Amino acid sequence: MNSCILIAEIIQEPQLRYTPDNQTAIAEMLVEFPGLRSEDPTGKLKVVGWGNFASEITEHYHIGDRVVLQGRLSMNTIERPEGFKEKRAELTVSKIYSLEAAAVGASRPIVAPVSTSGTSNVVSIEGRSTSPVESNRRNSVLGDPTVNNSVSTTGYQSSLSKTDSKIADETDQYGESYKAQTIDESQEDEIPF
């Protein structure tokens, strides 16, 4: 599975263009993200969005916006005029989240209008809970609706205590029946078939 999540800053205004048949919109922009360590250089990456999502990107995101990008990473080979081939990484974005809206209190709208296909890939992170996660709950960072966020361990603990007592009872029962069995040494030579 190829899925990447990246926090970055937009350093080139998103540009909208269309495929040669003029049917599909494509948005391209350049983002920058810090290196892993302080002495590492910043990384730059080309980000591409397709279809109705491309229009949403160009309308709602601009130079200087800090965003969380979720998508698929790919490597493209480009033929250079100097005669050699160059490989470049590219992120095909499927979802984009604005970090400014959450920090400023959503002073500007970050959710794009619903696209003609009926779904929007732009997700608002305003109003998300900033309280610490409880130790017995699983919460997704991005609020994944497929994750059960109310898992409880009380049922598991009670089933463990029942199992432990049942095992102890069975052990006692087997222990008593084993103690009750005696071997009559006079019948050692007889082997029942």
CATH architecture of the largest domain: Beta Barrel
| H/I helix tally | 3
User: What is the average of the pLDDT values?
Assistant: 69
Helix vs. strand class: alpha+beta
Q: What do we call the CATH topology of the largest domain?
A: OB fold (Dihydrolipoamide Acetyltransferase, E2P)
- Name the overall outline: extended
Q: How far apart are the first and last residues' alpha carbons, in Å?
A: 60 Å
Major pleated sheet: 5 strands, mixed, barrel
Residue share in helices?
10-25%
Query: Unreliable segments (pLDDT under 50, ≥5 consecutive)?
Result: 106-119, 127-182
CA-atom Rg in angstroms: 31 Å
Q: What is the domain tally? A: 2
| CATH H-level superfamily of the largest domain | Nucleic acid-binding proteins
Say how many strands there are: 5
Strands side by side in the biggest sheet: 1-2-3-5-4
CATH class designation of the largest domain: Mainly Beta
Approximate strand percentage: 25-35%
Order of helices and strands: EEEHEEHH
Topology of this structure?
Layout (H helix, E strand, L loop, with lengths): L3 E15 L6 E9 L9 E8 L1 H9 L5 E14 L5 E14 H6 L49 H27 L13
Parallel strand pairs: 3-5
Antiparallel strand pairs: 1-2, 1-4, 2-3, 4-5
Put the structure in a nutshell.
The chain has three helices and five strands, in the order βββαββαα. With 193 residues, it is α+β, with helices and mostly antiparallel strands. The protein is extended, with a radius of gyration of 31 Å.
